[in-house]
Amino acid sequence: MGKELVIVESPAKAKTLSKILGRKYTIKASLGHVRDLPRYRLGVDVAHDFAPFYEVPKEKKGLLKELKESIQKASRVYLATDPDREGEAISWHLLQASGLTIKAARRVVFHEITERAVKEAFQHPRELDMNLVNAQQARRILDRLVGYRLSPLLWKKVKKGLSAGRVQSAALRMIADREREIEAFVVKEYWVIEAELSKDTNGKDSLFKASLATYLGKKKKIEIPNQEEAQCIVADLAGAAYKASAVKKKQVSRSPAPPFTTSTLQQEAWRRIGFTAKKTMAVAQKLYEGLPLGSEGSVGLITYMRTDSTQVSAEAKAEARRYIADKYGKEFIPPHPRSFTRKAKGAQEAHEAIRPTGVQREPSAIKAHLKSEQFRLYELIWKRMVASQMSNALLDTTSVDIEAMSTKSGTGYLFNANGSVPKFPGFLILYSESKDEEEEEKQDKKAIPELSVGETLRCWGLNPNQRFTQPPQRYTEATLVKAMEEHGIGRPSTYAPIMSTLQERWYVKRIKGRLHPEELGMVVNDLLAKNFPKIINLGFTAEMEEELDEIARGEREWVPLLREFYQPFEEAVREATVNVAKIKMPDEVTKEVCEKCGSPMVVKTGRHGPFLACSAFPKCRNAKPYRIKTGVDCPRCGGDLVERRRKDNKVFYGCANFPTCNFAVNQRPLAPPCPQCGGLLVASGEGRGRCTQCKFKGPVVEEREEMAVAAQS
User: Fold this and answer.
1) Distance between CA 356 and CA 378 in Å, rounded?
2) What is the pLDDT of residues 323-350, one digit of tens each?
3) Is 176 exposed, middle or buried (0-12, 13-18, 19+ CB in 10 A)?
4) Active-site option among 78, 242, 304, 378
5) What is the DSSP-derived secondary structure letter of residue 616?
6) pLDDT given at position 713
7) At what angle do helices 11-21 and 277-289 cross, to 10 degrees?
8) Mean pLDDT, to the nearest integer, of 542-558?
9) Distance of CA 293 to the CA centre of its chain
């Protein structure tokens, strides 16, 4: 008999498992799915219970042949694909394509690639879970039906090369609706008045600020609409007497954030280190599958990174508490291990949170073995996990009401001052969750001096400040993922692909980290929202996700679900095909001139995105690639640095004068020069840059936005 065979998805995962399982096992990688729905046709028999037609892609046929040969030689076969629906479906497709029966194969599931977890999984193998497989099949077929029926409609009514997707379109609608809110927002002027105060005996040594709130005896906040009214109040307060009328002190306890889920990891990675959702998941995948750590060999550094659970095993909590006690002292661990529950709509709680596989493996100890991006993400995950099991931080807060009596009009005014000072750092000694701009606390963190009720205060000045009401912020990738999770749209495995697809299809562009809908995106959204209001709907999309979860739990059959969806959907498509008028998208005229005939060049969209074409078409058929200028000059020849894409669709930035000049960088160029040597800076995180010529790394303030302008390649 041959060795026992283990099949996983990736070579990196295979390498890490080989170290753990030893020579008794042969480990092969399937490189993801070995079969799928066909690329260029529907592949679903709607008339016969939505039967799918799966095929083995041409590039996978040789690999599948090798896997079949390995299966025939093996004494036993284990399927060790990832612990989610997609992983279960990959295993099922392997069985179907290889001819192996479900009974003949063992399914092993582990959420971290460590010796303990892997060996325990191999001691308790199970059969394939067809409920999970059917949930994945239902999602795949559902999305294929939507895409293959709506995309041709967009080609016919808008322009060729467009795509539509069930969850993708719901996310696009959120971005478009936000843009409409911003467009409809009416900015209003208002003024605030701050008083600079101190204890009457201490001079400016005890200076603090207080904001005007109300008139004495009134509850409604004073509204100051313009400078004239602000100056009237300031004039009335000239020479006023100030005293503390109420002093409230309390101790505030602040708890740490739970360990990461997929969505919170993507949000925090964007806010702290500037990683897109796609990059976060790509780096996390490598940390999960395993990386070589010198003499240790390949080691899985984090638990499975597609999860919506905040649960942590008792062993991991105990390890974290021991580490904290040894490193920081027993006062930094709470009386009992912390547990966290999820509030997000549709959370499954099936897996563990994302955490390091070993808390004792400090980031600094393995930094030399990791790439910069791997270290930064691992450090973030490690700190979040350790901090989650630390004591609360304690803050002493003070709130003071201050009365000011006008000596001119006799009017009484009420000011408020708030302050806080740390008493015990707790988890903040290691980590504090960052916040989105719209969530940032506005409270003044300065300490307020010891005050007693009735104490006279000295006013050093009144500052009237003009303000304007602000429209809602455009989404960042982080805030869009957060909003999608709150609405129950998508699942951990779908957030990153949605972000990428919206931008790759030119429906959305990212400027200064914010997601701006392109005109094409707005047109597509409006057409779909008007003609398919039920499908391109947040509530419906969330409901469909829950129904897919019911299939995964064995509470619902997948074919009836598709049948209930498809009939009204098909009717809506037929009506739209007849009733929707063709939308003429005006070509964007650029400053480029056709070198063949002298006519202006315009931006058109094809299968692979925008390109430049001569406006004199069809008389002149000149065309060339469309490039997005970064607004930064090439350091080698002075040409424009433009955004380009490799064959694998990954973005890089190269000189527009290529091939005369072949200068290129992988990170986005920044406008400010290096403060040390004047060289080219590239982005290395949100608000941070790295010099391409010297060793400078640090904060950078960008002066110019990216310019979406066509440039010659």
Assistant:
1) 8
2) 999 999 999 999 999 998 866 555 554 5
3) buried
4) 304
5) T
6) 26
7) 20
8) 94
9) 29
Residue 704: what pLDDT? 32
pTM of the complete model beyond 0.85: no
d(CA 598, CA 612): 14
**β-pairing verdict for 412-424 and 393-405:** antiparallel
H/E stretch holding 319: helix 314-328
| 651-655/664-665 β-pairing | antiparallel
Burial environment of residue 212 by CB neighbours within 10 A (0 to 12, 13 to 18, 19 or more): buried
Amino acid at 126: R
Token duo for residue 209 = 């600020």
- Which residues neighbour 664 within 8 Å (Cβ) at sequence distance 6 or greater? 644, 652, 653, 654, 655
Q: Are 213 and 222 in contact (CB under 8 A)?
A: yes
Pairing of strands 514-517, 588-593: unpaired
Tokens coding 590 = 């650029």
Q: What is the distance between the alpha carbons of residues 322 and 363, in angstroms, rounded to a whole number?
A: 17
Interacting residues of 701 by C-beta distance below 8 A, sequence separation 6+? 672, 687
* Residue 258 per-residue DSSP state: P
C-alpha torsion angle, residues 647, 648, 651, 653 (rounded to 10) = -40
Residue-wise over 277-304: b if at least 16 C-beta within 10 A, else e? bbbbbebbbbbbbbbebeeeebbbbbbb
pLDDT range class, residue 688, cuts 50, 70, 90: confident
Contact indicator for 672, 702 with CB cutoff of 8 Å: yes
Collapsing DSSP to helix, strand or coil, 46 comes out as coil
Residues 6+ apart with CB under 8 A from 244: 400, 401, 402, 451, 452, 453, 454, 455, 457
Catalytic, 304? Answer yes
| Residue showing tokens 């659970």 | 309
Instruction: Read off the tokens for 547.
Output: 């129904």
- CA–CA separation, 520 and 481 (whole Å): 22
Structure tokens at 606: 């094809």
